[in-house]
Design a protein that fits this description.
By secondary structure, the chain is of the alpha+beta class. It contains 11 helices and 12 strands. It has helices at residues 4-58, 66-79, 154-178, 181-205, 220-268, 277-304, 317-327, 329-335, 354-371, 416-421, 429-439, and strands spanning 82-87, 92-95, 119-121, 131-140, 143-153, 312-316, 338-343, 349-353, 377-385, 388-394, 444-449, 453-461.
């Protein structure tokens, strides 16, 4: 990121502040000037009207009346303005500015500039600088005897404008400085966590999945950091599993391949007598079958890893159990084992994938037979709990060590005792069983005591209706 985001934010903020200040300066300058002109004109007209009413009461336009003269001078001094008294033809009869314009004829005198009207400029070039001029008529009866004009230098209004603008500019500057806190908040809340997240993503891309993104926020940034940390943990587990998977596959393939190669070389170089060749050829076939079984198990796991592989139907799980047990008849005879089948109902209808549940039962019963002691029994029972059908397979074999119990579902995992009893196993059977039951949305549990036996119990969804008896 290289601070580009933060730099862009600062530049954008400064540009926004400068443009905003310029816009405020332009708008406030024009608006303030027009406002002050209007307000000043209204104030001056009010003063002019007050003076004109006084003259209307005195009955003349001369300054001989002390009250009028004092009023004009007081207003002129207080407001810093010039006050003229002119007759109806535009002749200046009196001027408070030390009689500077007395007896002057106003050229092109406009007698209609009364009321709320005002004029900006040099007032017929009688002033060197711009003034604001207002005029009020002096009436006597129903006739206009003269006019009261008040002139205020525009520079006085501009000075007031500047005072107001200084306050506006200072306020805007203070607001802009205080608003810089937004950048500090942005840096702490957004940029710094985002920088850490970016560093973490870079570490993960480089394969460092043990790196942890640390944030103290509980907002979206914190949630994103926790999500990335969780993702790195899962990738790390997957990476470790992949390495373990490859190591286990290599080990389980290497063992039969080594045996096959050794037997073939021995046959070719004459180490094995010709009369013993059939015996070792049978061993070669056994090792080949082991490889085939391992390959088929791996293909089954590949299929189970895909979603939507189940083909559910309603079927009698008790019947499936009887069929699977029948397929192990010869094995049971060799080890003098018997099955004890206990079914709560004659038929236990379930809604599941027939072939996959058959595979589950085959693997669990096969394991029970392998690890059961000779002349013992294997108990298989089914029952109903709520809307679930449970199936239990219990043997009286060697059991599973407590430290190995949590790992039996891992692919290619074999307990040490298992490797001693079942040298031709693939270590994939229970992993396949777990995957199938989980795909059905059900659970499977294992309870085992070393030297006593092991019991596997899993559940299946009960069928919504029963099929007619056949």
């Amino acid at each position: 990121m290289k601070r580009s985001l933060f730099v862009k934010f600062i530049v954008a903020y400064i540009v926004f502040g400068v443009l905003g200040f310029i816009v405020v300066a332009i708008l406030s300058s024009g608006l303030t000037y027009r406002y002050l002109i209007r307000e000043r004109a209204n104030s001056l007209y009010s003063e002019a009207t007050l003076i004109s009413s006084t003259y209307s009461e005195t009955g003349n336009l001369n300054l001989s009346t002390d009250a009028v003269s004092q009023q004009m001078k007081a207003v002129s001094t207080f407001l810093d303005v010039d006050i003229w008294i002119v007759d109806r033809n535009g002749k200046v009869l009196s001027d408070t500015a030390e009689e500077a314009h007395k007896n002057i004829e106003i050229p092109d005198f406009d007698s209609t500039m009364t009321g709320m009207r005002y004029k900006l400029g040099c007032y017929h070039d009688l002033y060197p600088d711009d003034v604001l001029s207002v005029m009020a008529p002096v009436t006597r009866g129903y006739t206009t005897a003269g006019y009261v004009l008040i002139h205020e230098p525009v520079e006085n209004i501009v000075a007031s404008q500047n005072d107001i603008l200084n306050i506006v500019y200072l306020t805007a500057l203070i607001i802009f400085i205080l608003s810089l806190l937004i950048m500090a908040v942005f840096y702490v809340i957004v940029y710094r966590p985002l920088k850490r997240i970016t560093e973490g993503a870079t570490k993960y891309a480089a394969g460092d999945y043990h790196y942890k993104i640390t944030t103290n926020s509980e907002d979206e940034m914190g949630y994103l950091a926790e999500t990335l940390n969780f993702m790195s943990d899962e990738i790390s587990k997957s990476d470790d599993y992949q390495k373990q998977f490859i190591a286990n596959v290599s080990h389980d393939f290497r063992s039969p391949l080594t045996s096959i190669k050794g037997y073939l070389e021995a046959i070719l170089d004459g180490t094995i007598p010709e009369e013993l060749e059939p015996k070792y050829l049978m061993r070669l076939i056994s090792e080949t079958e082991r490889l085939t079984k391992l390959t088929q198990s791996m293909l089954s796991l590949g299929t189970l890893d895909k979603k939507g592989f189940l083909s559910r139907t309603n079927f009698d799980v008790n019947r499936v159990i009887r069929d699977v047990c029948a397929s192990f008849e010869m094995t049971c005879q060799k080890k003098e084992l018997v099955f004890e089948l206990t079914f709560a109902e004659k038929k236990e209808m379930v809604y599941a994938d027939y072939s996959k549940i058959q595979q589950v039962l085959y693997n669990l019963i096969d394991n029970a037979l392998k690890f059961s002691n000779p002349k013992s029994s294997i108990a298989i029972r089914t029952g109903i709990r709520g809307q679930k059908v449970f199936v239990s397979i219990k043997d009286t074999g060697i059991g599973i060590p407590k430290q190995d119990l949590a790992k039996i579902w891992d692919r290619f995992y074999k307990a040490d005792q298992s490797r001693g009893k079942d040298k031709h196993g693939t270590g994939l059977g229970l992993s396949i069983v777990k995957s199938i039951i989980t795909a059905h949305g059900e659970n499977i549990d294992c309870v085992s005591t070393e030297g006593v036996g092991t019991e596997f119990t899993f559940t299946l969804p009960q069928a919504s209706y029963e099929l007619p008896e056949t």
